[in-house]
Input
Amino acid sequence: MRLLFCLILLAANAFAADTMIVLTAADAQQIKAAIANKSPGVRAFAELVRRRADAALSKGPWSVTFHRPKNDPWGVHEYYSEAPYFWPDPKNPAKMIRKDGERNPNRFDDNHRDIGVMSNAVLDLGAAAYFLGDEKYARKAAEDLRVWFEDPATRMRPALDHAQAVLGANDGRPTGIIDARGLVQCALGAQFLQASGKWEGPHSAAVRKWYADYLNWLMETKNGVAEGNSGNNHATWYMEQVAGFASYLGDKVALQYAYKRFNEDLLKQITASGSAPREEERTNSLSYTTFNLDAFALLSRIAQVNGTDLWHAAPLVKALHYAAPFVAHPETWKHQQISKFKADGLLFPGLAGAALKDKELLALHDSLQPGDDVWNGLLHLLVERER
Output
């Protein structure tokens, strides 16, 4: 039934959208006009978009079919990755052991790397096609989308059955769904490309169909359901993906599902003090605490753009204020953090600060450097416009 509903939505929403995942269509039009008028407030963003898009012109395209694991039994169209924290057991090399926070550099990670790079490139190029109005960016974005999502020879099957596999134990885990969180940025790039008027309708429809199929996979398969029930940052990022893809597709049923799970399940991760015990038990506990809050913030932002307020949920507000002092002074964190904590590029202080009109969070946002990419740059610009 969900698949049929998605197909109806595809037909109804193929050429119109009032929202663009993290901003409204009106927001996008105002930013575009400000760039055209050379407004000082958008100059840095316009320069970032052009620089990133120019770099993306000479890269790609990417496909899961280009790099495959040894003795691949699943076929070239299947996404495949290996779990980052598993290593061969020195006492029994046929067995893998988990070392939380220590990434195995010898694992097969090509598809994971490529889905992230492709997603960023599509956003860079799609944003440039829309905001800067240059057709060369649109052509390259369309090519990257066609190769990954549409071309029968190179497209990825819309499923993550074989993500974050553990050699000798399984050929994929629900945990691996987090690998594809960059596809939300990719969907935004596709929306920008479509809004530029420089993308042919059948190709746009093919990409939307892929996302509808993938959203259906997320919500109805064993792996997808398990990830949504994981009870930690994986569940939060899962719901962020569901909401992001649903916003792209205009799927109001899936959006409401994500909001319901936010209130009934995700907030249970947070204690009365504002801590998230499942994240604090990790070896890089401050990194995972803030990583989780970024997912909460993006999900809340998507809801905000679509007319629903999740920001004022008391446990979320508590969690934001619990973490903020430690982001500013990570040396005061009392839990394990085996890697250097990196605060620059965090999204939750600005997004939450602007939405809640919270001076503490906005001050923290101002103290951090934004990430040097279009996703971070756009969200940073939206914070400045709304604070």
In short: The beta strands are 80-82, 86-89, 92-98, 162-165. The two ends are 41 Å apart (CA to CA). The chain has a mean pLDDT of 95.
